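Lab channel / #folding
Pinned by the channel admin:
"Please post every new chain as: sequence first, then the structure tokens as a reply. Keep commentary short and put observations after the output so the thread stays searchable."

First post following the new format, from NK:
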Amino acid sequence: MTSIGASYREVDDDDLNGPWYLAEQAAASRYTGAELVGKWTWYLHFPGLDVTVLRREGFEHRTFPHVSGATMLWQRDAAAAAPFPDKPRGVDIGAVARASQLGMAIYSTSRFNFIAVRHGEAHGHTWRASDLAVATRDPTDRVHFFGCPSEQVLLPAPGQSA
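Reply from TO:
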């Protein structure tokens, strides 16, 4: 977790964050008052399959008891009250579950500005399943793009071309 002022942000260096990612998360925290902000609808890219799946469509711009562990912005007090558990995997989801149990406000922002990248088991990923199993395990997940959709998902900053 990285400290930024009165907040902490959880990011994975394998994932792709657009220039508006942090601004979107911070703005949502301010206008909703949520202690934890993230994404429950998000894109997951599989380089080995060369496809990108939209996960959990329909959970944008709303309070919800869960967000993806791969992308979170915590208020400092909330992060202290719901620390990451001391275990080898699933720590981010454990912290989100604890925040939900404590009744913290959790808000899911848009699907944009973030793409999780799954490099598969060969890269030591914590999900112990094949790319195909992960890509097809939830019947609501749908293939949205072939290839990596950076230009469609990571919105450019002012003055930058897409």
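NK: The chain has five helices and eleven strands.
TO: also worth noting, Residues 2-146 form a domain with the Spore Coat Polysaccharide Biosynthesis Protein SpsA; Chain A fold (CATH 3.90.550.10).
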